[in-house]
Amino acid sequence: MPIYAYRCTECGFEKDVMRKVSDPLLTTCPECNTENFSKQLTAPGFQLKGSGWYATDFKGGGGCKAADAKSDNPPPCQGGTGSCAANS
User: What is the pLDDT of residues 47-61, one digit of tens each?
Assistant: First the structure.
């Protein structure tokens, strides 16, 4: 479910709101009750819920280790043994 940032242009009140895409826009500021509450243009935010999502899915340490680990046997083009396919 998307998380939208809203801000009141009258009083400056800001709030992040979790809303469905199909929900109507919020227009009334909960702080000053004016019709100046509008959605901000921000980076996308979302929350993963439901079965199938694990706490380790997108956290560091448990993902792809190819970038972190150095190979004990580098390819020939990087100082290893054998012939390099690019030079054939």
Answer: 777 676 666 666 555
Tokens (6 digits) for 18: 């979790």
Question: 3-state SS of 18-81?
Answer: ECCCCCCCCCCCCCCCCCCEEECCCCCCECCCCCCCCCCCCCCCCCCCCCCCCCCCCCHHHCCC
* Structure token digits, residue 64: 């792809």
Separation between Cα atoms, residue 60 and residue 5, nearest integer Å: 26
State pLDDT tens for residues 7-42: 999 999 999 999 898 999 899 999 999 999 999 988
